[in-house]
Amino acid sequence: MLREMCKAKIHAATVTETDLNYQGSISIDKTLLDAVDILHYERVQVLNINNGTRVETYVIEGERDSGVICLNGAAARWAQPGDKVIIISYCLVDDKEAKDWKPKIILVDANNRLIKALSL
Q1: Three-state DSSP class for 53?
Q2: Cα distance between residue 51 and residue 67, in whole Å
Q3: Where Pyruvic acid (Ser) occurs along the chain (predicted)?
Q4: Which residues contact 99 (CB under 8 A, 6 or more apart)?
Q5: Which of 54, 69, 74, 106 is buried deepest, with most CB atoms within 10 A?
Q6: Are 86 and 106 contacting, i.e. CB atoms less than 8 angstroms apart?
Q7: Closest Cα to residue 76, out of 91, 64, 60?
Q8: How many CB atoms lie within 10 A of CB 73?
Q9: What's the DSSP call for residue 104?
Q10: What is the CATH classification number for the domain harbouring 28?
Q11: Residues comprising the binding site?
C-alpha cells in the first residue's frame, strides 16, 4: 500500500505579489524550493492563513534570493500581497517507509528568507 504524505512545507511565507494575467501557477524563490526539494512544475497546495482557503497549482521557479511568492492566473484572485500562506507538496510513500517518514519543513521570515529548517 502507498500513503500520501507531506513531502515538503514552506511555513508562513508572505505573498509578495499576484499576477492575474499570467497563465497560472505560483512563483517561489528558488532558494526556498531548493531548501525543501520542490521542483519546477511540481504540484503544490497553497493554504491562505488570512482567509482559510486552499488552492492547488504548480510551481514556477522564482529568482534565487528574491523572496518572491507570487500567485499567478486564477489563483491571483485568491490572495493579496501581504497574506501569509503555507505551501505544501505531497508524495506517495510505501507503507513501511511511511511510519518513519520525515518531511522537509522550513520557516521563513517576513521577507521570505529562510530562518531555519525543522527536524521532526
Answers
A1: coil
A2: 22
A3: 25
A4: none
A5: 69
A6: no
A7: 60
A8: 16
A9: E
A10: 2.40.40.20
A11: 57, 73-75
Residue 120, pLDDT score = 67
Range of the domain at 16: 2-113
Confidence of residue 39 (pLDDT cuts 50, 70, 90): very high
**Threshold 0.90, pTM exceeds:** yes
Q: Flag whether 84 is in a domain.
A: yes
Give the count of domains, the chain.
1
Residue 45 cell numbers, joined: 497546495
- Residue numbers belonging to the annotated binding site for substrate: 57, 73-75
Q: What is the pLDDT of residues 48-71, one digit of tens each?
A: 999 999 999 999 999 999 999 999
Q: Which residues contact 118 (CB under 8 A, 6 or more apart)?
A: 105, 106, 107
Catalytic residue list: 25, 58
